Amino acid sequence: MKEFVNEGHRVFFLNQEPNPYLPSICENAGVTYQTISIRPTRFSYIRIILLWMHLIRFIYKNKVNVVYSHLEPANFIAVLAQYFVFANIVTVRHHLDLAERIGFNNDLSYKLTYLLSKKIITVSEAAKKFMIARENIDAKKIHHINLGYDFKIFGTYNQEHVDLLNKQHAGSVILVSVGRLDSFKRPELCIDVCKKLIDKGVNTHLFLAGSGDKEQILKEKIAGLGLQNHVELLGYQDNVMDYLRAAHWLLHPSISESSCVVVKEAGLVNLPVMACKSIGDFDEYIIDNVNSILLDKDKFVSDAVEKIFYFKDKSEERMRMGENLNRVVKSIFDIKATVHHYHQFHR
Q1: Same domain? 340 vs 322
Q2: Distance CA 304, CA 253 (A)
Q3: Domain identity same for 212 and 309
Q4: How distant, in Å, are the alpha carbons of 104, 142, 160, 170, 285 from that of 245?
Q5: Domain holding 79: CATH number?
Q6: In this structure, are 179 and 143 located in the same domain?
Q7: Is 325 within 8 Å of 273 (Cβ atoms)?
Q8: Are residues 279 and 338 in the same domain?
Q9: Is residue 209 a contact partner of residue 218, using CB atoms and an 8 Å limit?
Q10: Which of 72, 102, 230, 257 is deepest in the core (most CB within 10 A)?
Q11: Helix (H, G, I), strand (E, B) or coil at 334
Q12: Does residue 254 share a domain with residue 325?
């Protein structure tokens, strides 16, 4: 949005739900922010109609030319509105296979969204291939444009806190995992990696940042394995960059991604990543053993332990991988490198 404003466009952010962060972010970027005020109703079709009417009125009132609709609840409303406005409606898909994994791919609204969509942007080539092969969506409608980041807004790390973390865990291999604590992110595998490294005589400390429905299960697992002094459940963190900067590896055993944000964050602080091959867009920019490590998703624990053990006395090689990840992330995902794809898309 900020880049579009810089190019001279008027930009609005219309949100279906209140958000504590977005209003100030939009104001600083010169974007007009508005939350749709519709009271919850037990009749979902009434809410759909009200959202549909509001979007149509908003487009006409503000003379909107292009609508980028993000995430499924908004996408369904947007494709219903496209027949009543002159604006170009573009649905933006951020997930790859989550609908199939959770089961909402059979919902009528989901099927209608992609049947009726005239233009679809997907944030990874892998998601585009999945949509064509598994959901039978017309390939001509789908356009892959990478996520674009203004990396300056990510902020930086607090060096004092980083130094403190390194001092507290001096002599340890520091691992970090960031993400939702759910079945698709598989955070329990990170605990298994920590345990196996300790069993091999490698002093290890793991930071798990995030929240989710597996939190209590993970607490019990940590206690059951006697890892209370080696694994910290951090919950949600605003200063995640501190932990990434202090760590030696980011562990990311997730099996459901389209284009993962935390891997880009790791790249910003030169932290190499261990992720699963053939998941999301990792294969599109991660080169195994060059800028990070790609592992078999079914052998993540054993392979990660082997790699960490191999690199524990090869800090220069590990740091070089992190530097390489930094370069590729900035070259591919910086907003300046992606915004011209939107110009081509509309031409």
Answers
A1: no
A2: 10
A3: yes
A4: 37, 37, 11, 14, 21
A5: 3.40.50.2000
A6: no
A7: yes
A8: no
A9: no
A10: 257
A11: strand
A12: yes
328 and 340 assigned to the same domain: no
Residue 174: phi, psi to the nearest 5? -100, 120
In terms of Cα–Cα distance, which of 61, 110, 60, 108 is closest to 86?
A: 60
Structural domain boundaries enclosing 294: 154-333
Q: Which amino acid is at 41?
A: T
E strand intervals along the chain: 12-15, 32-35, 66-70, 88-93, 120-122, 142-144, 173-178, 204-209, 231-235, 249-252, 273-276, 293-295
Cα angle 55-10-5, degrees, rounded to a multiple of 5: 130
Domain tally, the chain = 2
Residues 187 and 68 in one domain: no
Q: Which amino acid is at 7?
A: E
